[in-house]
Structure prediction request, 367 residues.
Amino acid sequence: MMELTGLTRRFDGVPAVSDVTLTVRDDEYLTLLGPSGAGKSTLLRLIAGLERPDSGSIRLNGEDITHRPTHTRGLGFVQQSYALFPHISVFDNVAFGLRNRLVDPVTDETGVKRRVDAMLELVGLSDLGQRMPGQLSGGQKQRVSLARTLVTEPKICLLDEPLGALDANLRERMTVELRRIREALGVTFMHVTGNEAEALAMGDRMIVLDRGRAVMIDAPDTVYARPATVAVAKFLNAYNVLDGKAEIGGFRHGDVLLPLPEGAARAAHYAVRYDLASIEPAGGAPAPGRAAMPAAFIAREFLGSRVVYFLHRPDGGVFEVERHLSRSDPVDHPKDAALTVTWAVDDVLAFDASGRLIETRRLKGAA
Ligand code: ADP
Ligand code: MG
Prediction:
């Protein structure tokens, strides 16, 4: 178990990581989501000991490692660039860490071979041990980089955007692979990504970083259904976020007044998930318990099993509606067609002026 307490790192007075307190459990897959510049890499570098905190502490299994040198922390770090040694074979790249580690290096070649072979098999590179890094594809280099770190049996493995350089196809395969490899070894993964789908799919838990702060630490389904702040809702790329102000009778968003769930009288942001909104013909009154807003059709986009409809809101912003094709056939609308978007008031998330989720009484999943 690793405990970060009040971890802060400033550059020129500006915090890159700000007062981060969290517990990393044994044998878990933790994903860390945040936009570019949120402080993800800095947080990993602090944990790895490549960066010194201005304040706060890091404890690993009860021991304070805040000021211990990197190579004595027993952590693995897979950096964004694979940083393989180009002039030695895949086998020797993986063996390098094992032969040279400070604590308990493996010196007998039979032991090295046994462990490197087992690791190459685990990452699916059994046949490529004698290749040189220059002869590998991006995905294979990624696996070598991972194997080289994991062969040293770290307690926690830090991965900085490990799938960032891979194409979509390979990326999807590697997500499954990473989970399988982690489970086989029982090591904790702390996986940094800027991709919300990746963070949601891979983590047992996820941390959301917003301008250096850990604004949410929870199970992916909770993060998705009940984002703790409006910034988290925006990072997820799954919510229409409307800004405005609660007034008597509802939520004022430009010219439209939308019904609010009970208890949301402080609302300053109003969010509706893409997949919980519907498109209906223009004009009709909303059904009981539903909200409605006029919208003009822009375009639709196929995403394999889903289709996303883009519409113009009355204030000119974009409203998205997502449909799974297993549940409905795609619908055609002429460009600029006047339509209505609707949603259940129970499905609305309201956030206050400081961006925090307001606990309303009738939220979905709360019962
Ligand atoms: P992320 O990995 O989430 O994209 P980083 O941790 O790399 O974000 O950076 C967080 C912030 O800290 C950024 O504003 C970045 O410019 C700044 N930063 C990171 N490293 C340094 C450094 N060595 N010197 C100055 N500023 C830095
Ligand atoms: Mg980074």
Remarks:
- The chain has two domains: 2-225, 240-366.
